[in-house]
Amino acid sequence: MNYYETLKVPKTASQEEIKSAYRKLAKEYHPDKNTGEDTKQKFQQIQEAYSVLGDKNKKQEYDSRNSQPNLEDLLRNWGFGNNFADDFNMHFGGYRNNPNAKGQDIRVTIPITVSEIYNGFSRSIDVGTGRINANIPKGAREGSKYKMAGKGQPNPFNSNAPTGDLIININVQYDENYIIQGDDVMIESFVKFYDMILGTNLEIRIPSGKISIKIPENTSPGKILRVPGKGLPIAGTEMSGALLIKINTNFQNLNSEQLSLINKVKELD
Asked: Is it the case that residue 77 has pLDDT exceeding 70?
């Protein structure tokens, strides 16, 4: 996958241009606004591309890896300096001392959404020599690590030696609609002001599905309602954190009859 083509930007694009292109495409292909496996995969590719091109250091590494360097540049990218013999021993000396040594691990960082934390996900990952499908269960967190045994680099001197592992690091993408607080998730919901006064039942959609909650009468703006078990899944268990719902209102324009009724209530105070 060509990350520049995915974000529809040229290689000369600035960080601001890359960010702008990412926001436009992420909004267009966001799973909350689109359905279908193709759209979901496209959104994941956009997230993966931006996680690299949106980081100056990762972008530089990506550009270097996909260019056509001369031998000197290639050796330098592999970590060798001017003293080739010493550097070679540092990197590959372990294989000489132990020809059956396990190959090197490959480490990648992938961006995920809050929805993918709730539901788990499958991702096709570029490891340089090809793509590998990784299935990540629900409950991932920022900094979580997952190991795919035998999916790393082979021992370059012994094809019968164990292959290294693929280590997947998780990076949770910011979503203004969901504020993560440990295992809990906070969202904000707006209701009509008279529903806050009289109480009502409210249906809310979260990544795991729809839930119905009761807003008690005389609810003040900014009040937080707690719904246990509807927050983030806790990996390796059947438990989940809590969903925290911050209740607010948008005061709409009232007609004369409505204003008259409110004045009557005020006179009773």
From this structure: no
Domains and CATH numbers, the chain: 101-174 (2.60.260.20), 179-253 (2.60.260.20)
Give the Cα separation of 55 and 92 in Å (integer): 30
Note the pLDDT tens digit of each residue in 44-68.
889 889 999 998 888 888 887 776 5
Span 114-128, average pLDDT: 91
**Which residue has tokens 């009761």?**
214
Q: How do 106-112 and 166-172 pair as beta strands?
A: parallel
DSSP run (H or E) holding 252 = none
C-alpha dist (Å) from residue 196 to 47, 192, 219 = 38, 7, 5
Largest CA distance in the chain: 92
> What pLDDT digit, counting tens, does each position of 176-217 carry?
899 999 999 999 999 988 888 899 999 999 999 999 999 999
Residue 232 neighbours by CB distance under 10 Å: 26
Residue 253 tokens read as: 């324009």
pTM over 0.85: no
